[in-house]
Fold these 2 entries.
Entry 1:
Amino acid sequence: MISNKAKYAFRALLAIAAEPEGSALTSAEIARRHAIPHKFLEQILLDLKKAGVLDSRRGKTGGYVMLRPADTVSFGEILRLFEGPLAPLPCLSRNAYRRCEDCESEANCEIRREFARAYDASRLVLDTRTLGDALANNPYGGDMGHEVRKAG
Amino acid sequence: MISNKAKYAFRALLAIAAEPEGSALTSAEIARRHAIPHKFLEQILLDLKKAGVLDSRRGKTGGYVMLRPADTVSFGEILRLFEGPLAPLPCLSRNAYRRCEDCESEANCEIRREFARAYDASRLVLDTRTLGDALANNPYGGDMGHEVRKAG
DNA sequence: GCCAATCCCCACTAAATAGATAGAGATTAT
DNA sequence: ATAATCTCTATCTATTTAGTGGGGATTGGC
């Protein structure tokens, strides 16, 4: 199960990305819409800003906007930001590799071999699908050009 | 990342399943071989017994044996036993479904839709591959008949 | 019958993580 | 000025993880 924090992050990002270009969304409004504790959400949005995903404006007409286009932000990237490595074993993480202390031989480790298969399968999805894909309501992830939302 | 507990469970199961039929393996021996804290491992083996995966004999010649054949025990089953539902969201778990409290419509939830894709991919692997497959060192999971170990 | 080895059961603890809550400071439009 | 917003730091509580520890029950060998 993913954490509430990560789920809140996705809810917020999808709301911000769905906003018309140039128009900012406040943390209070996002919190209200999705019943997210406001101060908790502020921390999350701040993390997303520090990670270079969001930009923000302060003051009366402030709020958050996407810094990068929604179709360049993958689900895997956001998940890693809030949950740490996605790999089921430290010895399978490319980004945060650590050897299992009790492992005699990675090449012969049955656990590693089987989990690598599961991890590869889910990573392929998570690192491929983007916020843009999700908003486009496009089950097979084809190129949608400039379109953002396809009517149902 | 999976828990130590789950990892220990896999190490123990693979050791027990690799044993010749009818010969039992003691918790002390498994703990020694794989540097697992003994008392912690005992709890794990007991859980596996209660789940109907292992059987045990007490007393001087005691130890643990597989209750079910290794090729009927999937990685997903063991993982669920120690980690709870594998689904990334409660609303995606078949076995332990719970509605997301803040969700207005599951059918229209972008987060649910995307995570379903990732979950399907990894579940397909975890619920298909068995301890037997892993021990057979058989990367593509074909039928190995009665063979348990294929020489390298 | 006794002993030692083993599994079985239950209680407890220490550290880390999740999920917030709180308060004050910085910036900006009006 | 002021009110609304983002920004930063600290703190708190509950849960989970990863064990540890002390016995009790069962069994085989003597």
Note: Helices of chain A lie at 4-18, 27-34, 38-50, 75-83, 110-126, 131-135.
Entry 2:
Amino acid sequence: MLNSILFYSLDKAIRSYRRLAQANIDRAGLDITVDQWLVLQVVLEHDDLTQQEIAERVFKDQASVARMLALLVKRGLLLGIPLPNDGRRTRLRVSEAGHQILDAVQPIILANRAVALAGLAENDLTVLRQLLERIAQNCAPVAN
Amino acid sequence: MLNSILFYSLDKAIRSYRRLAQANIDRAGLDITVDQWLVLQVVLEHDDLTQQEIAERVFKDQASVARMLALLVKRGLLLGIPLPNDGRRTRLRVSEAGHQILDAVQPIILANRAVALAGLAENDLTVLRQLLERIAQNCAPVAN
DNA sequence: GCAAGATGTATGATATATCATAGAAATTGC
DNA sequence: GCAATTTCTATGATATATCATACATCTTGC
């Protein structure tokens, strides 16, 4: 039975949450995806990362990040300024429009989390996080 | 910090597992994706479901399932036989090639699960599943 | 300095995710 | 029995996921 498979529950939980999050962002009239929001947030916090570094932080791959960044720049949420010391890269900066959308999304994300985690105690979350981290570690390819 | 966000851990765990699973399937020389495998497995168990019903079982949407079924038929893993009592539908059946690939993938999936869940006690899994189900339920849209 | 290797980015190909909608076929209400 | 509604499937548009690879640029070794 599918229901007895742990990964089914995992998949279901994350997909449910993502749908909820996206629905609430859409409902607020904000034109951004959850994934774009995440990348934008990472750039806000660190504007000197390579695509690969961003990819590791958001757990996507470099190709996905490259396309998302191009889209965010195209939409005017990010600015790409050529880096003088490395001709391959551009320094990314969140634009004014980007800041506005991040500010608008922030409370929605917090509300979503509250809804998603309703009824879970602080201790539950700690246990959950530990188990999930263990699974991720178990699955990680041996680096070397 | 991203690391303190539960959904980050969730996303990371499921993505790690999916990558491991796909890598091992690929390594075995089997030409099927994890998602295709899941759909094929569902059809094997119930050959009279609508796309919508399959979609609910695998927690995808109908459009995704439609495309995956078309691809599975095209690849010869599924057979589509028109249903006499409903001109809109076709009865899906797993082909001989489909059975072969399911049989070949089965042990790999089991091995993957063992690797992913190494070090987790039976009790951990129960707790984990309950918490994940609760989250999914919290996020589910009110049906009516 | 320069050749070899490493790093950073972009993109093609294919698969999946989602919404919206079109079109066909079945069901319902009356 | 037929019109209105519902159900089922397919598909367009756009976004993301992944691998592979092309290409430019940087770094290292010597």
Note: Chain B touches chain A at residues 2, 5-17, 19-20, 23, 42, 57-59, 113, 115-120, 124-125, 127-129, 131-136, 138-141 (CB under 8 Å).
